[in-house]
Amino acid sequence: MTAAGGLPALESNPVEPFLRMDRMPHIWCPGCGIGTTVNCFIRALLDSGADRQNLTVVSGIGCTGRVAGYLRLDSFHTTHGRAIPFATGLKLANPKLNVVVYSGDGDLTAIGGNHLIHAARRNLDLKVICVNNLIYGMTGGQTAPTTPRDVITSTAPYGTFDANFNLPHLMDAAGAVYVARWTVYHVKQLARAMAEALSKKGFSFIEVISPCPTLYQRRNGQGDGLNALQHYKQVSVVRHGAPTQEVGIGRHGEIAVGKFVDRVRPDYQELRRAHLQESLGGRYADTLHLEECECPS
Ligand code: SF4
Ligand code: MG
Fold first, then answer.
1. Which domain holds residue 112?
2. How many Å lie between the centroid of ligand 1 and the Cα of residue 62?
């Protein structure tokens, strides 16, 4: 098939209807991995047949925080570290919503770290996608809670020396029902994990290891985005079901990827309803109108 002028017709990109094209070009640097994660997320929506009318994406602040603004979905770009409280309010007000929190390691695990662990503890029905580039990106390449030891950052010119978070272990210990990690090299596995999390009830956490060539790779002599992908390919080891205490990330050495946790336990709203039913008995029915949102689907 040819277009006018005899040139081959371009097939439409299936991802494009999910993007606010009027917001392009995006702000991300060449070689940044965040755009790849967005592509995977949209593929996951397409493959899983997720109901877009009842899906909401909430982001915090930072380079990954911009994702919400680029998606043609109901989406919210919220304040720094507060994506999870915002998402919690949405979910409690309208339990029918599938609420996705999409943010970076600095936003979710530093200023938002307290919210993260408590949402996992309560098993709120949220799907959290954490793009972990091991550093604060947008604010200038400072050391983050996820930065491994012996890394040069703008706040550690002689190298970092304190311990970094092992996010899968943190989430496992806090009570998340689904915990996985992939890198932006593993696009098919990442899209599959996102689709799986979208249909899983309870608190799901997917860590995506992603390069920040501008502020991490450059300062540490690790080349560009393509070098990062080659590195991920070389050092990643698939370890489904691995004990999460064994999957921490250092500057060197392997990156364990895979699905580490997949379990079932009652989510916050199930527990709450059961508790109120037990406590209030017949009177509970009188309160239902207060918690069942009448929002149009
Ligand atoms: Fe990506 Fe880093 Fe550039 Fe932010 S600063 S857009 S994380 S490469
Ligand atoms: Mg970051």
1. 14-283
2. 9
User: In sequence order, which ranges of 135-211 are alpha helices (DSSP H)?
Assistant: 167-174, 187-198
Which residue, judged by its Cα, is nearest atom 3 of ligand 1? 29
* Atom number, ligand 1, closest to the C-alpha of residue 33: 1
Provide residues with CB under 6 Å of ligand 1: 28-29, 32, 34, 63, 133, 137-138, 212-215
In a domain, 174, yes or no: yes
* Residue 233 belongs to some domain of the structure: yes
How many domains are there within the chain? 1
| Distance set, CA 65 to CA 7, 82, 107 (Å) | 39, 11, 8
Cis peptide before 25 (omega within 30 of 0): yes
pTM check: above 0.85: yes
Note the pLDDT of residue 295.
Answer: 56
In CATH, what number is assigned to the domain containing residue 159?
3.40.50.970
